[in-house]
Design brief:
The complex is a heterodimer.
Chain A lengths: L1 E12 L2 E12 L3 E5 L6 H8 L7 E6 L2 E2 L11 E4 L11 H11 L4 H15 L14 H13 L5 E5 L7 H16 L3 E6 L2 H5 L3 E6 L2 E6 L1 H7 L4 E7 L2 H9 L5 E5 L2 E6 L6 H11 L3 E7 L3 H11 L1
Parallel strand pairs in A: 3-8, 3-9, 6-7, 7-8
Antiparallel strand pairs in A: 1-2, 1-4, 4-5, 9-10, 11-13, 11-14, 12-13
Helix pairs in contact in A: 2-4, 3-4, 8-9
Chain B lengths: L2 H6 L9 H17 L1 H8 L1 H13 L6 E7 L4 H11 L4 E6 L3 H9 L5 E5 L3 H7 L6 E4 L4 H25 L19 H13 L2 H16 L1 H6 L5 H30 L8 H23 L5 H19 L11 H6 L1 H15 L7 H21 L6
Parallel strand pairs in B: 1-2, 1-3
Antiparallel strand pairs in B: 3-4
Helix pairs in contact in B: 2-12, 3-10, 4-9, 4-12, 9-12, 9-16, 10-12, 10-13, 10-14, 12-13, 12-17, 13-16, 13-17, 16-17
Classes of the chains: A alpha/beta, B mainly alpha.
């Protein structure tokens, strides 16, 4: 059973095509990642899925609701955490939870119990009477997640939930997402962090409004990488870079002291490249074929289009 | 794509749940209580602004520097000058010895009014003949000049009549009588009218509250909840209406007890009509703020579209100009100026103020309805 079915969804703003004919499905209970740089159309897609923005054309069914025709029917069943932290800083943790709970029709004992549950889930019980403005960044994100969970949504939509959060809190946050997915909640999450994308069950790569690839991270790496990736380690990477850039490769990128190069049939060119680098005096330490990272796939895909 | 079905949904946008409305109202009250600037803007600042504006726009509070050139130097001329010297609004700068001195003093800005008493003034009075004095005003400030010269003409005339009563002769005598504001105290007509201006402040606060929610991003979050446009708009308006009434009570208290403006109409009528005025301003400003994305644009819009035009066009300073009549009539303030003056000075009943009251009620109804219908529940 699918939680989200999107077919040929397109959104134009005037002449600008924000989302260009995208199609994908999200299965119930999976963590589905939407990976793309800023401005690639992630937020626009989310707004269409939530019924906040009417699409120019195409279909979208979310939890079996046609959100193009009945946008108001989806609100009760989805939890949404928007990109901007949108809780009220001048209200306490509890007051924020109570307010959002009431907007979903929760009240009295049921609301109080649910509030305790989500606070326990994120471990924020001790700070329930603090002003939200006084919380540290990581806690704010977790509180926003807790708020989106109050009404037990079947689908959780998170728009860059960990932007600007430190690595430890990011890991914490993802631990929570796995827990929720384990309970059967479908999670639709956008990110531009590659390491987070690797943690999704399935993934869609989006760039300039166009879907580049959809599938499990490992599958995408196998099916959407033209050629191989070779890691080049040398004593003087600054000398090596111009040599490699002149060597007719699909991609040359510097990661710290290491250089990743990509292109078709690279395993047959290793000796030739080594010779070129030695001739330039780059001091080659190693040249080895490595499995591509999502980032390699992403760069390869965006540069070929 | 079946677009018509999507559009039909609009008809139920006015539907709402009392519980969700209650949640928004409670939240909004908390925002106002916790934000000192906002709290101040809605509750206290109308009264403070009324004091400031009343002194700024009142022409009878400043003491006018005054000099005289007495060419008669009789007992009678001295009596007239003594009478003028007791006036609270004049500040005697002194006596001058020539016309040129008078002119120089006015040129230099040391005086703004001058009085010349001609030779033979005392003798004419004693003989029962009509006599003249000359008043000189500084036309660079025409309103003050006109008001003060009219007032002095009256005072001198009165003194003349008092003199005649003591020394009877048959004068030709025009007796002017001004109704409702016998001393032509501009503060008495200005202060009630200025209530219309200072009660725009709660509207300014609601414009800030609406756009703050957009800046914060919570508007988008709310849009994804079951909250409906009617609940959102009314949930915002009601708390500002309540606090706006508190602010109005403060401003009315200042009018009554500080400026001692008499309230001749019914206090209940005043309360009811203030409620309608607040609804109209809050509604119209809410409608406009719906199209603004940030607090700073909303603030500018309220200043340029409401506050400034209301000060100059709504008939507070000068009667409504036929050329700007349409603009003036479209401002809620214009109608409340009529209401406030009618209630305070003339003691009119609400029946007599039916037209402005009806217009305010329609403005409130239409603007709130359209605010709800045009609220971009769908973001982007």
């Amino acid at each position: 059973m699918n939680a989200v079915v999107v077919e040929h969804l397109t959104k134009r703003f005037g002449r600008f095509v924000a989302v260009n004919d995208i199609s994908f499905t999200v299965a119930r209970g999976e963590i589905f990642g939407f990976l793309g740089p800023n401005g690639s159309g992630k937020t626009t897609t989310i707004r269409m899925l939530l019924g906040l923005l009417p699409p120019t054309s195409g279909q979208a069914r979310v939890l079996d609701v046609d959100v193009v025709r009945h946008p108001e029917r989806i609100a009760r069943r989805v939890g949404y955490m928007s990109q901007k932290f949108s809780l009220y800083p001048d209200l306490t943790v509890e007051e924020n939870l109570r307010f959002y709970g009431r907007t979903y029709g929760l009240r009295g004992r049921a609301l109080a119990r649910r509030q305790d549950e989500v606070l326990a889930l994120i471990g924020l019980e001790a700070q329930r009477r603090r002003l939200t403005a006084a919380l540290a960044g990581g806690w704010k994100q977790k509180l926003a997640l807790a708020t989106a969970l109050l009404h037990r949504p079947e689908l959780l939509v998170l728009d860059e939930p960990t932007a600007g959060v430190d690595p430890i809190n990011r890991r914490e946050f993802w631990r929570l997402l796995y827990g929720l997915a384990g309970e059967g909640v479908t999670v639709f999450v956008t990110t531009h962090y590659m390491d987070e994308a690797e943690q999704c069950h399935r993934l869609a790569l989006i760039h300039n409004g166009v879907l580049l690839a959809v599938g499990a991270p490992d599958v995408i790496k196998q099916t959407h990488m033209p050629g191989q990736v070779v890691e080049v380690l040398c004593a003087r990477p600054r000398v090596a870079l111009p040599v490699l850039r002149a060597a007719d490769l699909a991609e040359v990128a510097l990661y710290g002291e290491r250089i990743h190069i990509a292109g078709p049939n690279l395993e047959h060119r290793l000796d030739e490249l080594r010779a070129r680098l030695e001739a330039a005096g780059a001091g080659v330490i190693a040249l080895r074929v490595i499995p591509p990272s999502l980032e390699d796939v992403f760069i390869a895909q965006t540069s070929t289009r | 794509m079946d677009r018509t079905k999507g559009e039909r949904r609009d008809s139920i946008w006015l539907a709402m749940s009392i519980r969700r409305l209650g949640a928004i109202i409670r939240k909004e009250f908390r925002h106002i209580r916790r934000d000192r600037r906002l709290f101040f803007l809605v509750t206290v600042s109308p009264a403070i602004m009324l004091v400031a504006f009343a002194y700024l726009f009142s022409f009878d509070t400043a003491r006018i520097p005054f000099a005289y050139y007495d060419r008669d130097r009789s007992a009678e001329s001295r009596q007239l000058l003594m009478a003028l010297a007791t006036d609270r609004e004049l500040r005697f700068v002194g006596e001058v010895a020539s016309y040129d001195d008078l002119r120089a003093a006015m040129q230099a800005g040391r005086i703004r009014l001058g009085l010349v008493i001609p030779p033979g003034f005392g003798a004419d009075l004693v003989a029962g003949r009509t006599t003249t004095v000359q008043l000189l005003g500084d036309g660079s400030d025409p309103i003050t000049a006109a008001v003060q010269m009219a007032r002095l003409t009256g005072m001198i005339g009165e003194w003349g009549q008092a003199y005649r009563r003591l020394n009877p002769t048959p004068p030709i005598d025009v007796r002017a009588l001004v109704w409702f504001n016998p001393f032509l105290r501009s503060s008495h007509s200005m202060v009630p009218a200025l209530l219309a201006i200072v009660l725009i402040l709660p509207g300014m606060a609601v414009a800030l509250a609406l756009t703050r929610e957009k800046e914060l991003g919570s508007f988008e979050s709310l849009a994804a909840t079951p909250v409906r446009p009617a609940e959102y708009i009314l949930g915002k308006l009601i708390p500002y209406l309540v606090y706006g009434l508190v602010g109005a009570a403060g401003a009315v208290a200042v009018a009554l007890f500080w400026f001692r403006v008499p309230l001749r109409g019914s206090p209940l009528d005043l309360a009811g009509m203030t409620l309608f005025y607040l609804l109209a301003t809050l509604g119209v400003i809410t409608f406009v703020a719906g199209f603004m994305a940030t607090q700073s644009t909303a603030l500018r819009a309220v200043l340029l579209l409401f506050l400034v035009p209301s000060v100059f066009l709504s008939g507070i300073l000068l009667p409504v100009d036929p050329q700007t009549r349409l603009t003036a009539e479209s401002l809620p303030a214009t109608h409340f100026v009529v209401i406030a003056r009618g209630l305070f000075l003339k003691g009119q009943s609400w029946q007599a103020l039916g037209r402005p009251l009806f217009i305010l009620a329609m403005m409130a109804l239409l603007s709130i309805t359209f605010s709800i219908l045009t609220l971009r529940k769908r973001v982007g």
